[in-house]
Amino acid sequence: MTWPLEHIAIAADLCDAGWRTHQIAAELNRRFGTAYTKNAVLGLGTRRGWAWEHGIEARRQRAAAEGRAIRRSAPRPVRRFRAPCDPPLAPPRPRSMLDPAEIPVPQRRQLLELRNTHCRFPYGDVGTPGFFFCGAAGADFAAGIAYCPAHCATAFAPPRR
User: Fold this and answer.
1) N or C end of the chain, less CB within 10 A?
2) Which contiguous run of DSSP H or E holds residue 123?
């Protein structure tokens, strides 16, 4: 993109006045009817070596020159992982439930046997005779919960750190 010299001069003046990139883009767009973005202004300034004075170092220097301290903001809260299903009503079964031998045979379901409340946690390889779904009660497929509470806790476990 080629910038007209008049736009560059005004952007440079606004940068020297301490304007932020999004403010410079908005002002140029207002004056000239253009569609510059903050990233376009940032690229122009970076290529021309402009000093952006709205970073933390600039704030610290201005505060030191004025004889005041920078106010520290409160730490941001840590985001917690939230599973897309309701918490289980009963405590989840142990991880051994992932072993196909732990699933009772009468509970196992084939694809065409699944109903709204059946767990759709798969076991085995698709297309092999031993493939089946868990079939335990507790799912609500219509509401977007495809697994029983135990498999929901396994499938949507928070990431380990």
Assistant:
1) C
2) strand 122-123
Give residue 95's pLDDT: 47
Structure tokens at 47: 């290529």
Q: How far is CA 8 from CA 13, 22, 32, 54, 132, in A?
A: 9, 15, 12, 19, 66
In the three-class reduction of DSSP (H, G, I as helix; E, B as strand; rest coil), residue 66 is classed as helix
pLDDT of 129 reads 86
Length of the chain: 161
Contact 141, 116 (CB under 8 A): yes
Enter the tokens of residue 138: 């507790």
User: Highest mean pLDDT range out of 32-36, 62-66, 148-152?
Assistant: 32-36
> How far is it, in rounded angstroms, from Cα 57 to Cα 34?
32
Q: Using DSSP, state whether 117 is helix, strand or coil.
A: coil
Share of the chain above pLDDT 90, in %: 22
Q: Is the pTM of this model over 0.70?
A: no
Residue 131 in contact with residue 158, Cβ under 8 Å? no
